[in-house]
């Protein structure tokens, strides 16, 4: 990851400016956020054993970063926290993924958002003898994005009850114009936090861009 600290007028860092390892996806996060190793999030979301060949191959195609504004930063704050948490990932797609990815695939890229994906989540968990992790889905916003050069994407806001708390997620997912990568940014915190800090969260989400490199 390339990360640049930009200094404020007082000489203190104002932002983490972040780009993925290929330099194609950019966003910025206030310097008050702590950076975390996002690899455990990738393992959790993929469901793969960390020592498996599938995990190794996936690791070569996936970049990710995580930032937490909590005074006690922790990766689990992606799913439940009273302070904003930022997770970003860029996936280099396989040929099969490029051929089958749709806007609904972008919606479901990290969490089950569409009705079929939510049903599959419940069925899978109950079939394994476990309670569903994500409960009481509430859609808040769903915007289709048409970007320069033929890139396209979606920006969503939705609630899930996770445990006793309601967590709000702001998710932007972009399929690049070459059909080669999907870039995702998620900002989350509990619903009351989200209402209180909506402007700050929106500025982080609005900073999420695809970059065109020379050549």
Structural topology:
Elements: E1 2-7, E2 13-19, E3 25-30, E4 34-36, H1 39-46, H2 53-59, E5 62-68, E6 85-92, H3 95-100, H4 103-107, H5 115-127, E7 135-146, E8 152-162, E9 165-175, E10 181-190, H6 191-196, H7 198-206, E11 209-210
Antiparallel strand pairs: 1-2, 2-3, 3-11, 4-5, 5-6, 6-10, 7-8, 8-9, 9-10
Organism: Nonomuraea typhae
Protein name: Lipoprotein
Largest sheet: 7 strands, antiparallel
Contiguous runs where pLDDT drops below 50 for at least 5 residues: 1-9
What is the percentage of strand-forming residues?
35-45%
CATH architecture verdict: 3-Layer(aba) Sandwich
Number of domains: 1
How many DSSP H or I helices?
7
Shape: globular
Please state the CA-atom Rg, rounded to the nearest Å: 17 Å
Give the neighbour order of strands across the main sheet: 4-5-6-10-9-8-7
CATH class division: Alpha Beta
Give the distance, in angstroms, between the N- and C-terminal Cα atoms.
Answer: 21 Å
From the helix content, strand content and strand pairing, which structural class follows?
A: alpha+beta
Percent helix: 25-40%
Describe the structure.
With 215 residues, this protein is α+β, with helices and mostly antiparallel strands. The protein has one domain: Protein Transport Mog1p, Chain A (3-Layer(aba) Sandwich), CATH 3.40.1000. The chain has helices at residues 39-46, 53-59, 95-100, 103-107, 115-127, 191-196, 198-206; strands at 2-7, 13-19, 25-30, 34-36, 62-68, 85-92, 135-146, 152-162, 165-175, 181-190, 209-210. The strands form two sheets. A seven-stranded antiparallel β-sheet has the order 4-5-6-10-9-8-7. Strand 9 (165-175) and strand 10 (181-190) form a beta hairpin. The longest helix is centred in the middle third of the chain and has 13 residues, at 115-127. The protein is globular, with a radius of gyration of 17 Å.
